Task: inverse folding
């Protein structure tokens, strides 16, 4: 996990527990299948990253916009992946196997 964390912006690490708790809330709903949770967390992670990147970027050219989109998507995927990874570590740590 440490190599992945090197790529996540430190200020976006707060999204990992946020997404974890969102995932826990989604899991309690009966109308969303468990296999959809990682996709939903990925989309929410990307959306929240878009807000952060857009708020902290000065857009002077189309390249700035493209770079902001790239950063937001990659950061969103990484934080969602970390959140799902933490959930799996917890589940495996609690199992008897």
Result:
């Amino acid at each position: 996990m440490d190599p992945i964390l090197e790529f996540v912006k430190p200020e976006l690490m707060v999204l990992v527990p946020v997404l974890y708790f969102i995932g826990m809330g989604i899991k309690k709903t009966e109308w969303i299948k468990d296999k959809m949770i990682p996709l939903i967390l990925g989309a929410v992670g990307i959306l929240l990253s878009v807000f952060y990147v857009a708020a902290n970027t000065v857009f002077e050219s189309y390249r700035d916009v493209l770079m902001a989109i790239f950063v937001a998507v990659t950061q969103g995927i990484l934080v969602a992946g970390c959140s799902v990874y933490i959930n799996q570590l917890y589940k495996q740590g609690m199992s008897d196997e």
About this structure: The chain has one domain: 12-94. The helical segments are 2-5, 15-27, 37-55, 62-94. The first helix runs from residue 2 to 5.
